[in-house]
Amino acid sequence: MLTISTVRLLVLGSILRRGISHGYAVLSDITSWHADTWTNVKPGSVYHALNKLESQGMIKSINSEVNVKLGPSRKEYTVTKKGETEFEALLESALVSIDIQQLSAGVAFMDMLPRQKVIALLQQRRIEIERSIGFLKSLPTEERPSEPSMHPELVGIWVGYVENELATTERILAHVQAGKYVFKSEEEK
């Protein structure tokens, strides 16, 4: 299930990448990123997020100076300082999240943080996943389970899923530590 924070992260990230953007451009960005394949973001949730972010002072609207086909001016947005702070908090939260949609959005924008910050967040995620694996492996199981949570196959599904999350986190972490990608404050020369 898509969380509100994931939509907020995608919307703020789109506007930050562009500098100034209108709602349709934000939706176009999210669509061109095929975010619908790694989140459940819908057009209505993007426009709802724009309205909510504006009412909360995270973005501010400015009237476009370009009239499209003599129509009304287009409402464009820019991210406020408060919105930048929110974006960074959402991004950091996404990079340690166990929710795959949040993590996906976090990875999509991780280059907007300093490399060392991303490394620290991924290391934190790895530690939490390792704890989860230890807990799951300690759960009691029964060959003839007296309740569903004690079914060995069910516990096996959980362990397998979380072990895969660990492997994914370690792979991303290794790439970032090896110098892959360009991060905030690293200028390409």
From TrEMBL:
Transmembrane segments annotated in the record for this chain: none
Cited Pfam families: PadR (PF03551)
Gene3D superfamilies: Winged helix-like DNA-binding domain superfamily/Winged helix DNA-binding domain
Limits of the Transcription regulator PadR N-terminal domain: 15-88
PANTHER family for the chain: PADR-FAMILY TRANSCRIPTIONAL REGULATOR, TRANSCRIPTIONAL REGULATOR RV3488
UniProt-recorded name of the protein: PadR family transcriptional regulator
